[in-house]
Amino acid sequence: MTAELVTEVGAAPEAPTRGRQVRQRLFADRMAMAGLVVAVLMIVAAVAAPLLIHLEGQDATSYHPELLDSARGGVPRGAFGGASGAHWLGVEPTTGRDLFARALGGAQISFLVAFGTLIVQILLGVGVGLAAGLGGKVADSVLGRLIDLAISFPQLIFAIALLAIVPSGFPRPLLLMLVIGLFGWGGTARLIRGQVLSLKTRDYVSAARLSGASRARVAVREILPGVSAPLVTYAALLIPSNMISEAGLSFLGVGVRPPGSSWGQMLSSATTWFQADPTYVLVPGLLLLVNVLAFTVLADGVRTALDPKARSLRGGRR
Amino acid sequence: MTRFLLRRFASTVVLLLVMVALVYLIFYTLPSDPAVLVCGKGCGGGQLAVIDHKLGLDQPEWVQFWHFLEGIFVGRDYSSGPDVSHCAAPCLGFSFQNDQPVLSLIGQRLPVSLSLTIGAMVIWLLIGVPAGVLSALRAGRITDRVVTAASVLAFGAPIFVSGMLLLMLFCGYLHWLSFPVYVPFTENPAEWAKNLLLPWFTLAIAQAAIYARLTRTGMLETLSEDHIRTFRAYGLRERRIVGRHALRGAITPVITISAYDFGYILVGAMLTETLFGLPGLGQLIVQSSNNVDLPVVAGLTLVAGAAIVVANTAADLLYAVVDRRVVLS
């Protein structure tokens, strides 16, 4: 933030800009790059899902009873859960639905909910955080308590409770974004509030205020750019955590409902098959695991690249 | 100290009352027909009228809320003519689907949740804290990096994925354990422990990662403080410095988070309990949500909130006991 202030015009023409420094540091971080590659591949696969499924020649909902061994309770015939040239990741026990197609559908849901939730979290978190930081003593103490409450409350319990009373006609992915977002904005708000409180006493903000800028203008033009770096860092960490929330709620049966597919929901129906058909467990389980880890190390890389002095977070979010 | 306790108690009570009001608002007034929700799926018209009357839904809303509050403090009767169901003092509602007060449902599940939480907590503290200490003492070296990498993996893995992988390894592949079935401690302690091993470790692995991280940071911070340097200058042995002084500084955040986690996991181990089919409080929440048994969901939400608020207060008190620099105010 101070780097731009001290640069005099023409002082050091080849001095790298902050953006380039950040990019260089990020590209030098091998773990983060591995995370980035996996994350990009996953996103591409999710976006190109219809194409890939068409390429495979299957769909997510057709039953294929001929591929199942009815003598063994509907386990797919053949090794590795019936994986073959026609069904790349095998088929689901008892129904014979194509696992590749269902797994890609799960990837779409995972990203859709993770990013959609992120938008809700940022809107609420930045809104409340800015209001608390700039709104004066009363607003700050009231909103501060609200933020504490939002952080210390058991999100998953409230989310489940709320999902129970919403009519089943409501579109499920949208509902998940709203519910996870509604209980998960506290961290963002606390971060923004803290940043705003320290930024608003800076000279450049006072200067803007004294020159007659309105409150809203100061908030948007002077304060908001200052909080963007920590916000990006925090948002990057929210993505894997949102993925886990979606998968968890779907695992518990209150998230994505059939015929839609989600990795969490696939895992929950795979629970009873872990002995007879391990592939059925491993496909959604490893996809979720690899995806979450990729986004976590990427987020950590972004964090250390933006703020090299900060200790690497690798290993814990609390 | 007394003043702190009184103030803390007052704010805890206020917080809990706000929560009660919120939970009541969400579960008893927002749904368009609470009787349908209370009764659950497949309830007829006649039954609904009975429940309407029994719940007092034919009265104004503030009267209903008053009765709800009254139930929590002195108990209440749900009555409709001859059919009276009594709900004793902390009455959190009445589950018409189970024909039992919510509190007694919770009581039946509590031993399972306590077994799970206490066992897992012992394991994660025994793994996490020493791993963190070791990691801090060997900071930057290979041990530290191995511990750090392991904790990334353990923390990043969603708990139902790591649990499932453990299940596949120990039950499906190695056949060392069978699929967990809850056996009460009073019935057979050995079987109790054997069946809980997988759930304990599933929870403990994820938690241990957080605790290792926390302990490592705390240790490194304390070790760089002036008083430790002074101890070193006096020639105190390193073992004593680490064991008596550095550990004390590192352990405070661990205690705070432990209290919080205990409260949370006691009520909210939904994923673990669902995965392993353990009949605890977390499973009860999930089942009641799926059956739309709202009084149970509302009651459990209250209990969860209360458990966490109480645990937080306990953590602050413990904090002051362990770290004498902390002044309660």
Summarize the structure.
Chain A is an all-alpha fold. Chain A is built from 13 helices and two strands; from the N terminus they run H-H-H-H-E-E-H-H-H-H-H-H-H-H-H. Chain B has two domains: about 100 residues, no CATH class; about 220 residues, MetI-like fold (Orthogonal Bundle), CATH 1.10.3720.10.
Structural features, described:
The complex is a heterodimer of chains A (318) and B (329). Chain A has 318 residues and is an all-alpha fold. Chain A has helices at 3-6, 18-28, 30-47, 49-56, 99-134, 137-152, 155-165, 172-182, 186-199, 203-210, 215-251, 263-270, 278-306; strands spanning 68-69, 75-76. Chain A is elongated. Chain B is mainly α. Chain B folds into two domains: 2-103, no CATH class; 104-328, MetI-like fold (Orthogonal Bundle). Helices cover 74% and strands 4% of the residues of chain B. Chain B is built from 13 helices and four strands. In chain B, strands 1-2 form a two-stranded antiparallel ribbon. A two-stranded antiparallel ribbon of chain B has the order 3-4. The termini of chain B are close together. The chains are: A mainly alpha (318), B mainly alpha (329). At the A-B interface, helix 7, helix 11, helix 12 and helix 13 of A face helix 1, helix 6, helix 7, helix 8 and helix 10 of B. Chain A: It is a multi-pass membrane protein. Chain A: Keywords: Cell membrane, Membrane, Transmembrane, Transmembrane helix, Transport.
